[in-house]
Design brief:
single chain, 255 residues, alpha+beta, PH-domain like
């Protein structure tokens, strides 16, 4: 039963529906609409499908006055209270109940196939919501009974946040085959090949000779300018007596 205080919502309403008296079921086989007197319905009116809580109600009412003819409470679908027939999608078997608890099975049919489809979908959507609501209630009860995770700070517990003080990591330099770091070449430049050992020695000798020549030239100029003070040292090289070279050169090693 629906709890008191819950509001009643309308799920579906169809203005034209037929009601038939059906023979009792002789076996466990499904109902067939062909066994009914489809040309002469026993009652004609409108159908209003409502929901109050988790229970759906199929109400058969008079078209003009709205007086209730019969109603069937549905607590599940498909189920015993509402069954489909095996030979048509427009007819159903409905179990109606009165206030005294007495029940009976009647046949219900729609003239339009679309009305039967809307009736079927409205009940499916309602009981789909009922199933979800039941599962949510069960999960909520299990969550309340289970241990709760305490994420609060304990007494005296603090937390430190370092914002914007992260250390910058140096990018590793590329290493050569020997494991020593090499500087990258300048952009757009070319690296000259290293000079050979022979050319380096030749350059060193040339630089030394140039320095000696420049120093000799300076010495000559200065000696000429100060010939009065250093006359003894300004004599030309031709006036200096040349020493005779030894005749016997066999004792010297020739380089």
């Amino acid at each position: 039963m629906a709890a008191e205080g819950e509001y009643e919502s309308i799920l579906c309403m169809k203005p034209d529906v037929n009601v038939y008296r059906i023979p009792p079921r002789a076996s466990n086989r499904a109902y067939r609409a062909a066994d009914w007197k489809l040309d002469t319905p026993d009652w004609t009116g409108r159908m209003r499908v409502t929901a109050k809580g988790q229970v759906a109600y199929v109400k058969l009412e008079d078209k003009v006055s709205g007086e209730l003819f019969a109603q069937a409470p549905l607590r599940e679908y498909p189920g015993v209270a509402l069954e489909t027939v095996s030979d048509s999608s427009r007819y159903f078997v409905l179990r109606i109940e009165d206030d005294n608890g007495r029940s009976a099975f009647i046949g219900v049919g729609f003239g339009d196939r679309g009305d039967a489809f809307d009736f079927n979908v409205a009940l499916q959507d309602h009981f789909k919501w009922v199933k979800q609501d039941t599962e949510f209630s069960k999960s909520a009860q299990l969550g309340d009974s289970g241990p709760k995770l305490d994420l609060g700070f304990k007494e005296g517990q603090t937390i430190t946040l370092n914002i914007g003080q992260g250390k910058k990591r140096d990018k590793p330099r590329p290493q050569g085959a020997g494991g020593f770091g090499l500087l990258p070449p300048p952009p757009g430049g070319k690296i000259a090949p290293p000079p050979s050992s022979g050319s380096s020695n030749h350059n060193i000798e040339t630089d030394c000779l140039l320095e000696l020549d420049s120093s000799n030239s300076n010495t000559v100029v200065q000696s000429n300018a100060s010939s009065d003070l250093w006359g003894d040292f300004s004599a030309p090289a031709s006036s200096v007596p040349q020493q005779s070279q030894p005749q016997n050169s066999g004792n010297w090693i020739q380089f």
